[in-house]
Design a protein that fits this description.
Layout lengths: L8 H9 L5 H14 L6 E4 L1 H16 L10 E5 L26 H8 L3 E6 L19 E2 L2 E5 L5 H8 L5 E5 L6 H7 L2 E4 L20 E5 L2 H11 L29 E5 L9 H16 L3 E5 L4 H19 L17 H12 L2 H14 L4 H22 L5 E5 L15 H6 L5 H6 L3 E8 L5 E8 L4 H15 L8
Parallel strand pairs: 2-3, 9-10, 9-11
Antiparallel strand pairs: 1-3, 4-5, 6-8, 7-8, 7-12, 11-13, 12-13
The structure holds glutamine (GLN).
């Protein structure tokens, strides 16, 4: 039998339907691959026994003709999504002992669609980071090279899909955490519009920017997953009450007449040659597929990154105040209440989390609120207006997603600002709440995957997926890591 872990969701679904193999066989292949690739540290918690019992249920459903849309698909969740009865750590010592008694809406929906969960995936602590190295459980390695980062913060989510230790995964994207690791690991990932998926039961980082989304082997798998995880949720007042389209239906490969904008501000200073080249190739591919390329301007782009870090840190400092040793997680006792808070938070949080809480508290403090926080909110509005204006003349945008391929573990580690600069192409759309997708399109000079990004209008994931699919078809990216 061929290696079942090489199949996409759509291929595996057909295989199950045709009884070429069983859900138990499919899940077992993934469990074996999890063991084989254990050194990559993609998983924090494995739920293999439960996965096998779920696979038996899936086989019964298939036998009785009650196959659900994602029946028997062995996926895994970023360990930021609360899972009932399964430890949920957010990659932090603070939640090392936290087992929720409820399930996040998104993981619940995927389970109801027939997905099987193989476990919980590694991430930067509280989803803060771009290299997947700040996890309390150790850093994630990139399947394309054990000395390379898998990206962040959804490091385990992208790593597992690339290493074939999960057929697809969930991630979250506050400023690029689905798209950047997807690009670094050579897989596809879409950050949906803010409000498309419920955030209920997802550990909060920066609530006005956070959004859950899928990472898959290809664009089609992301479309299938997105259809099954989206939708209004009464428990999240920011989830949008609008219908969820069948995202797979738009994948025709035909983008005739579609206008794709190229924002000139994304030609950053010192843009590496190989990134400029891949972007240029992307334009040609879309033209080849029938799209029209239009130059556009997003004048406030350069202010988006600093403003993002002000807003994200401000919201994080507020969200993370709940970890006080009383209500959740880790606790270190002290003589006085204040001492207990101090010891608990100094011991429970990692260095990057503390840095962000400090920055966030600073920009929200009385003397600096107007100068930093309010100003950043104004920038946010200007950034959103830029997109609105650009979308008057184009249907979607094509940009790079990362300024480099996956970098070495340890690189940029001592310089947080350098690390933040890594997010230069990804954070802008989060500030406007827009959807964006990363698609692998080629290899760097050093043989590592490079992605491109398609950005769309709010709640127009259909165009994002359609253009991404056309790009994927043209690029014919079929390189795989050597594992
Ligand atoms: N790298 C960005 C940050 O550290 C984005 C993280 C994310 O999207 N969760 O804030």
């Amino acid at each position: 039998m061929t290696d079942l872990t090489k199949l996409t969701i759509s291929q595996a679904t057909t295989g199950l339907k045709n009884k070429d193999f069983s859900a138990v066989e499919l899940t077992t292949s993934y469990i074996n691959q999890m063991e084989k690739t254990d050194n990559l540290n993609a998983y924090i918690t494995k739920t293999t026994d439960n996965a096998l019992s779920q696979a038996k249920i899936a086989d019964n459903n298939i036998a009785s003709g009650n196959m659900r849309p994602m029946e028997g698909m062995p996926i895994a969740h970023k360990d930021l999504l609360c899972t009932k009865g399964v430890k949920t750590t957010a990659g932090s010592k603070m939640l090392d002992n936290f087992t929720p008694d409820y399930e996040s809406t998104v993981s619940q929906k995927l389970a109801e669609s027939g997905c099987i969960s193989l476990g919980k995936l590694n991430l930067d602590q509280f989803a803060m980071g771009s290299n997947g190295q700040s996890s309390f459980y150790g850093g994630t390695k990139n399947p394309w090279g054990n000395d390379l980062v898998a990206g962040g913060s959804s490091s385990g989510s992208a790593c597992a899909v690339s290493a074939r230790s999960a057929i697809a995964s969930t991630g979250t994207d506050t400023g690029g955490s689905i798209r950047q690791p997807s690009a670094f690991c050579g897989v596809a990932g879409i950050r949906p519009t803010y409000g498309r998926c419920s955030r209920w039961g997802v550990v909060a980082y920066a609530s006005s920017l956070d959004q859950v989304g899928p990472i898959g082997k290809d664009v089609r798998d992301c479309a299938i997953m997105l259809s099954n995880m989206s939708g209004h949720d009464e428990k999240d007042s920011t989830s949008a009450n609008i219908p969820v389209p069948d995202f797979e239906a738009v994948l025709t490969g035909d983008v005739k007449g579609l206008k794709i904008g190229i924002p000139k501000e994304y030609y950053i200073d010192d843009m590496p040659q190989e990134i400029a080249k891949i972007w240029d190739n992307g334009k040609k591919m879309l033209v080849e597929a029938g799209a029209e390329i239009v130059d556009v301007s997003l004048p406030h782009t350069k202010y988006a990154l600093p403003a993002y870090y002000i807003i994200a840190c401000a919201e994080a400092s507020s969200n993370l105040s709940r970890y006080d040793g009383v209500r959740y997680g880790h606790r270190v006792s002290g003589k006085e209440l204040d001492e207990m808070y101090e010891l608990t938070r100094s011991e429970g949080f990692g260095e990057e989390v503390k840095r962000r809480i400090l920055m966030g508290t600073y920009v929200l403090s009385a003397g600096f609120y107007d100068a930093y926080y309010i100003k950043a909110q104004k920038v946010r509005r200007l950034v959103a207006n830029d997109f609105k204006k650009a979308f008057e003349s184009v249907d979607a945008l094509l940009t790079p997603i990362t300024p480099s391929p996956a970098f070495k573990i340890g690189e940029n580690q001592e310089d947080p600002v350098k690390m933040y600069l890594n997010d230069v192409f990804s954070v802008t759309l989060n500030m406007a709440g827009l959807p964006g997708m990363s698609v692998p399109v080629g290899l760097s000079d050093s043989g590592l995957p490079l992605g491109l990004q398609i950005i769309g209008k709010a709640f127009d994931e259909e165009t994002v997926l359609k253009a991404s699919y056309a790009l994927e078809k043209q690029a014919k990216f079929d390189a795989t890591p050597n594992i």
